[in-house]
Every structure is written in structure tokens, then in C-alpha cells.
Amino acid sequence: MGRVTDNFIKHIESYGFKARIVSIEHIKEIQSDMENTRRIHRDIDNYIGKYIDKFNYGIWENSLKAKSIIIIAIPQPIVRIHFTFGMKRCAAIMPPMYLLNTSNELEKKQKKIIEVTSIIEKILSNENFKAIKTNLPCKLLAARSGLGVYGRNNICYIDNESSFYWIGVYMSDMPCKDDSWQKNSIMNACRNCSLCLKNCPRGAIADDRFIIHANKCITLYNECEGDFPKWMDSNCHNSIIGCMKCQMICPVNKNYIRNIEDLAEFDNDETKMILVKTPLSELPETTYKKLKSINFIEDYNLLARNLKALISSRLL
Length: 316
Ligand code: SF4
Ligand code: SF4
Fold this sequence. Notes:
Layout: H1 3-13, E1 18-23, H2 27-40, H3 42-52, E2 68-75, E3 78-85, E4 88-94, H4 111-125, E5 131-133, H5 138-145, E6 148-150, E7 156-158, E8 165-172, H6 195-199, H7 218-222, H8 245-248, E9 260-265, H9 268-275, H10 285-293, H11 300-312
Parallel strand pairs: 3-9
Antiparallel strand pairs: 1-2, 2-8, 3-4, 5-8, 6-7
Helix pairs in contact: 2-3
């Protein structure tokens, strides 16, 4: 790899991040990979096509003459949040990544993403280069750049180490001569393993194809507003948002599943206010700050429903 890209990776690693850089030439391949997936698997197109449509394959061109794509992975803990029901204090789990998870529209205001972006900008500015955060298929880019590899659960495992990472993608005018572009592959650990498949509450992980059946994955429903489908019984729910079942059981993650951070505790009054969907603007400042610390401002409208689902599953 060239000196400049090599220096960038070394520098970014000093922050505890991991990175790969690939040439901008591959952007068309990424786009066609995504288009092929939705053409071959009509269910993917039906259920997650609206997210795929938001990927940006070139709108940044006016503001940056991009030569490379930088893929960044940042280790993330499992988050534990405490709620209080009368005298009972109960813990809910939030999977890694949700501390930074933000819609494309709001990520410019997300404190942690702003911090990551400013670190990247600072390192690149030493060589007079720039970067722009962009919305591209993160997992696919991580896999094709060699930063990660897919598991059977379609989660991306970074450096074969764990899946507990947030992945971000940036376009840069930094040149990339010897990039690490490669074919998609599945983790070696998956060859004789089907633990995630057996542990998935709704059979979303497929035996007959690599792509999971997104319409059976509970994440699709608890990350969006609306009633849960009737087939989603109370046993499905295990996290305040998303789902941990296929990651918790995975042997590749075993050294990291105890990396849990307690980030917020809501007392009885606060828990009640959340459950009755008190508008954000009417919450006490302390409660608002707690929600912010767990990155639950944008998704606040999901919190009461998801919390009730955990109560009905008797996990709380
Ligand atoms: S549980 Fe097994 S099959 Fe599933 S992702 Fe992990 S190693 Fe692969
Ligand atoms: S996130 Fe949950 S529902 Fe989705 S595939 Fe994994 S275990 Fe199944």
C-alpha cells in the first residue's frame, strides 16, 4: 500500500479504530452488487429496498474529486440500560453500533460521528486531503475491502475478531494505488457451524441461501414505527432495539460478550414517562440527557413500544 494510505491507517489505528482504503473505481461494482442482490432476491427489494435506495453513489462529486473510499470500523460495547418499575430495577440490552446509529439526514448532528469525522479530517489534513462521510453499504464495503468478513447471519465481523463494531464510510481525494479490494467471503468459522441459525427467534437466517430472510428478522420491525406483526410473539424480543440473538451465540464473539457498559438508569418516574410516550420536549432535562447518552433521541418514538415488548417477553 502507498505511503500516504499506509500512514493514514497507522494513524487511525492509534485511536483504536480499524480502516481499509479502496479505490473509488470500485463504486460501480458496489452499486451493481446491491442491484443484483435486490434483482435476485425480490423479498430483499420489497422489504429493504427503501433503505438501499438511499445509498449515495455519486452526489458528493460536486464537493470532492474523490479518489478513494475509506472504510472505518470502531469497536463498540454492548450497552445496558436500567429501567425502574416500582421497586424493581430491570436491565435492557442495546446491541453494539446503536450508540452511533443515525439516519443519513441527522448524522451531521450526531456527536460521536462528528468526533470520528473530525479525527479523520485532522489526519488527512496533514497531507492536504479531505474526506466526506457518505451513505454507502458499509458491511459490503468492509467485506470487499478486506476489513471484515460476513458471517452466516449476514453480520460483518471485523478482522475476524468480533461483530461488535460500528462501520462508517468516507469518500476522500487521497489517492489509493494498491487497494485491498477482494471477493466477498464467509467466515471460516461458519463452515461447520449453524448456531446463529438455530438461535434466531424467527428463522431469518437461511439454510438455502446466503442472504438472510430480512422480512423475518425482528430488527426490521423494531427499528421502525408501527405495530409488530402478529407472528412476532413475545419470545422474539431480546433488546431495546435490534436483536442480539445471532451475535450472542456466535463463538467468534465469545471474548467480547462481556464487554457491557452501563450507560443510563431511568428511575420509576422517568420509566413511566417513557412508557406513556411523554413528548421529548416535556421530559426533564436530566431524562433527555440520559436518552441522548444512549443515542435514543432520534428513535425516541420507538422506545415505549420496544420497552413494552420487553416487558411482555418477561425479560424485564
Ligand atoms: S454462529 Fe457460527 S455460523 Fe453463525 S456467524 Fe457465528 S460462526 Fe458463523
Ligand atoms: S438479528 Fe435476530 S432476528 Fe435477525 S437474523 Fe439475527 S437472530 Fe435472527
